[in-house]
Amino acid sequence: MKNIEQLQEKFCKAQNNYQSIKKNTEQKVIRWFWTTDSISNLEPFYFEENHFPTGRLHKEEPVKKENQYQYGVDDNNEIIVERQFTGLKDLFYEIFYIREKDRIESYRFDYSVEKGVDNVELFIYENSILTISYTVFKDGWIKYVYTYSKGKLSTKTMQRIYQNREVPDRVFDYHYDEIGLLQSIKEKEHYWYNKPNKKISYKKLTDLVSEKLLEILKQHILNYNIREKIYCIYVYYYHENILPPSVGFGTEADRKEWQNEKGKEAKWIIWNPIDYSHSIEIDLNEETQNLFNVYNQETSLHNKDNNTIKMIVECCKNLKNSISEFELNKTDDFVIVASDYEQSDLKKNFKLINPELFDEFKNKLV
After folding, report:
1. CA distance linking residue 33 with residue 59, whole number of Å
2. What does pLDDT average to over the chain?
3. CB count in 10 Å sphere of residue 15
4. Are 280 and 178 in contact (CB under 8 A)?
5. Any idea what DSSP says for residue 263?
6. Burial (Cβ within 10 Å: 0-12, 13-18, ≥19) of residue 210
7. 125 pairs with which residues across the strands?
């Protein structure tokens, strides 16, 4: 507990100490470089576990810095400063690494002018091998204990206190293939990472998933068997683990109620599937869940989310062409649409799925 208490004290003082931490760390930087995304994390297998892609090196400082990363390295060529630029001009998160023998302390500050502190972390090493790490933040702390077998990380045990409540421990198991490369990261029965079969190309994997997704969407719509009159079937998704998406049914009864209550502003609810009275969270059998997990993992690691959205759009086109199979009670202006849960790509996808109706609907969409 001593390390946690010390970190909590440093966390409380960090915002006031921002300028001195920044000055003392940045004065040791001998070289800066830029990347398209994050390239470094002290947590072992961080990118694999979280399905994050690693960034690419910029040859020179980019003109547009929004959503880019900047790193500063010391005379040991070790990263001691990370700047994560946001989509807002000249605003960025900062991490400062204080490197000492057998320990690294880090401070992460937010992008606000006030530079609030997000967390303070401590990584402890024995003979250059990470054994324990701590993260302290506003509402609690996390402790990781790392154990090794034959020189490779075998388990990571996570202990947490959140909002003054102790949370049950979590244990992550690491497995390797015959040549010692990471094969999987597993927590109980859940795979956080599972290396795909290299005999299956990404294109083949995409084809398999696309075929399975259309089959599943059709089956779930048929099984739900909605009898109310509907103006749309809405396939929506989140940007983490896009597949499987969810399905919402916009009913005419709800639409009329929203129009009466909200008038012109009703469109913000009409095209928000979260507010629909009828929706489906898709259930998958173990085999299909594993297939989708591998696909989501590889898609995220290789930054190909647009590939998945294109797949969903194509599935919606197929649903549209086979709509008679479902015997739905539809309004005259019934459509099939797809978007993320924030409706950020609703218009774009609508035009792809229903090009013949876009001029009619473009002012009705959000």
Report:
1. 8
2. 93
3. 15
4. no
5. G
6. buried
7. 130
With 80 as the cut, is the pLDDT of residue 199 above it? no
Nearest alpha-carbon partner for 162 in 138, 144, 145: 138
Residue 330 tokens, joined: 């539809």
Contact 251, 277 (CB under 8 A): yes
Residue-by-residue DSSP string for 122-179: EEEEETTEEEEEEEEETTEEEEEEEEEETTEEEEEEEEEEETTEEEEEEEEEEEE-TT
| pLDDT tens digits for range 142-196 | 999 999 998 899 999 999 998 888 889 999 999 998 778 899 999 998 999 998 8
Tell me the one-letter amino acid at 269: I
Pairing of strands 330-340, 230-237: parallel
What's the average model confidence in pLDDT over 259-265? 92
Three-class SS of residue 20? helix
Pair 158, 169: CB distance under 8 Å: yes
pLDDT score recorded for residue 74: 96
Residue 303 has pLDDT above 90, yes or no: no
Give CA separation, 201 vs 149, 229, 298, 304, in Å.
32, 43, 11, 14
Q: In angstroms, rounded to a whole number, what is the distance separating the alpha carbons of residues 291 and 241?
A: 12
User: Considering the entire predicted model, what is its pTM?
Assistant: 0.66
Q: Are 39 and 23 within 8 A, CB to CB?
A: no
pLDDT surpassing 90 at residue 55: yes
Instruction: Indicate the range of 130-134, 252-256, 260-264 predicted with least confidence.
Output: 260-264
What is the b/e burial string over 79-114, where b = at least 16 CB atoms within 10 angstroms of the residue's CB? bbbbbbbeeeeeebbbbbbebeeeebbbbbbbbeee
SS3 state at 257? helix
Could you tell me the two tokens for 139?
A: 């509402």
Task: Please state whether the peptide bond connecting residue 244 to the residue before it is cis, i.e. omega within 30 degrees of 0.
Answer: yes
Angle between helices 305-321 and 346-353 (to 10 degrees): 40
CA distances from 305 to 224, 241, 311, 348 (A): 28, 9, 10, 15
User: Residue 39 gets which letter from DSSP?
Assistant: -
